[in-house]
Specification:
Layout (H helix, E strand, L loop, with lengths): L1 E2 L9 H9 L5 H22 L4 H6 L2 H11 L4 H19 L4 E2 L1 H14 L6 H10 L6
Antiparallel strand pairs: 1-2
Helix pairs in contact: 2-4, 2-5, 4-5, 5-6, 6-7
Length: about 140
């Protein structure tokens, strides 16, 4: 299981900084990926209608997903998957003790494979590598 702390209490600001900005195998890539997806959702919105730029810039991540779903720039399946990822990101952001089992991470990659194109084969590679992991993070 990937777990940060025994409880959600932050004793020192430095601890919070290391939790969010450190070389964590889950949190750091999740935050980077979340920001990348948010950027791409904004770009899809602007490509759909440049007049929506200010609206898109003011929306939360969840509302940006909903907007792109309604504009049909992403499919319902893609939107559902992005909502799942956003919920996980929110748990990491608000519950420092939150953790994921490796089996849950594998399932996320398997789900992603079914709703997104993976031209570079990275989903299969990640699933394969995670499948070799027997210990907890």
């Amino acid at each position: 299981m990937v777990r940060r702390k025994q409880n959600d209490k932050v004793d020192y600001l430095e601890d919070l900084y290391h939790y969010t900005a450190g070389a964590d195998p889950i949190v750091s890539p999740l935050i980077a990926g979340h920001l990348s997806v948010e950027y791409l959702l904004r770009q899809l919105t602007i490509q759909y209608d440049p007049n929506l730029e200010q609206v898109a810039d003011e929306l939360s991540h969840a509302r940006l997903i909903a907007l792109n779903r309604s504009l049909r720039t992403i499919s319902d399946e893609q939107a559902d998957y992005l909502v799942r990822i956003n919920q996980i990101r929110n748990k990491f952001a608000h519950q420092l003790s939150y953790g994921l089992e490796i089996s849950e991470i594998i399932e996320l990659f398997e789900s992603a494979r079914s709703v997104f194109s993976d031209y570079a084969g990275q989903f299969d590679h990640c699933i394969s590598e995670l499948g070799k992991t027997t210990s907890s993070w």
